[in-house]
Amino acid sequence: MFCKNTNTALFYSSIDKIPTKTWEILGCENNIYFHRDFLKSIEKNHPEITFSYIILVDDNSIPIAFSSIQIVDFFMNSIQNDFDFLKNLGRKLRILKDSKPLRLLISGNTFVSGEHGVFIKQNQDKQKVILELAKAINHFVSSNKELKNKIDAFLLKDFVNESLFITDELKTVSYNPFSVEPNMLLNINENWQNFDDYLASMKTKFRVKAKKAYSQSASIKIEEITSENIDDKVIEMTALYKKVAESSNFNLGDFNLETYKYFKEKFDDNYILKAFYLQDKLVGFMSGIINNNSLDAHFVGIDYSLNREYAIYQRMLYSYIEIAINKNLKNINFGRTASEIKSSVGAIPQDLTMYLRHKKTITNKILKLFLQRIQPTPFQQKFPFKK
């Protein structure tokens, strides 16, 4: 897919086509989500998604910002459960149709929640840069006849509250903000030297709950998944992942678990993969990545028929916490979904905002009303720690 460069933006159709010098000037690879190996692994294993990359440059043609672009088909049936009223509203307003998907151009990571779509170098006017990105995205589509006819809407995801003074500039170019499910964040207390310290910091009720989960899951064996043994497990893992994905309220795409092979090859011990066995049966797996001082939980797979009896998911949450404490990390990003149970282990919500614009002006104005109806699913926040 060809797009002519401009004075402010360079366009690439593959990670491999971005010059090494550009990566060096940007200096973005300290963050794994902007590391070429991470991005290449996702690109290589998801051929159904069109990947592109935008490099913004200054007046001297020096790279100052990077954005990962994905073009995906958003299907009506990917909106589930509590969002049914939005499907009905979308049909009435003719924003969503059963007959064909909404083709979305996304700036962000389709598979991971958080600010992993736009990197801006320090000492830049970030409000100006975000508007230049919106302009570059518009050029990318309008300069390509095929894309111009096929792209329905533009989505920039996911921004924390501290970034909104920058990203709200997008409202001046007709992007509509809306809130999504929060990222659940657990800060690791520096006094926790081991998991027992974590338990000791909890109120009795929650400490009892944790010990019960360990008792229920005592017969589960946890094994490391490595580059050498993942081929033996990936088919079963995929089946368990799909069960979890199907229960999600909102899905932008299916993750190909073959990607894990490349993550393990490239990031080794910094990529966490563990299998949960009950006797010889795989009943769950957990994944995550260590990014600087954080542990980010990625996808999990669960045998729901055994989850309640053996507390599989709850044990996974405690396993993330054990890893973070043992590796002296500062926090855990648990991601979206299952907010209440994550709060019961100490996580607090971190609000996230997305920005959406439909290419048709009238439809975009209607869309604004549609998006105002979207609210994160309410949950009862738990406070498990002693004061």
Task: Give an overview in words.
InterPro entries: Acyl_CoA_acyltransferase (IPR016181), FemAB-like (IPR007434). GO terms for molecular function: transferase activity. Keywords: Transferase. Pfam families: FemAB_like. This protein has 387 residues and is an alpha+beta fold. The chain has 2 domains: 9-182 and 352-372, Gcn5-related N-acetyltransferase (GNAT) (Aminopeptidase, 3-Layer(aba) Sandwich), CATH 3.40.630; 184-349, Gcn5-related N-acetyltransferase (GNAT) (Aminopeptidase, 3-Layer(aba) Sandwich), CATH 3.40.630.30. The chain has helices at residues 20-26, 36-44, 84-92, 126-142, 145-150, 164-167, 195-200, 204-216, 234-246, 259-267, 304-310, 312-326, 339-343, 361-372, and strands at 9-12, 50-57, 63-74, 102-107, 118-120, 153-160, 176-187, 220-224, 271-278, 281-291, 294-302, 331-333, 348-358. Strands 1, 2, 3, 4, 5, 6, 7, 8, 9, 10, 11, 12 and 13 form a 13-stranded mixed beta sheet that branches. Helix 2 (36-44) packs antiparallel against helix 10. The radius of gyration is 21 Å and the shape is globular.
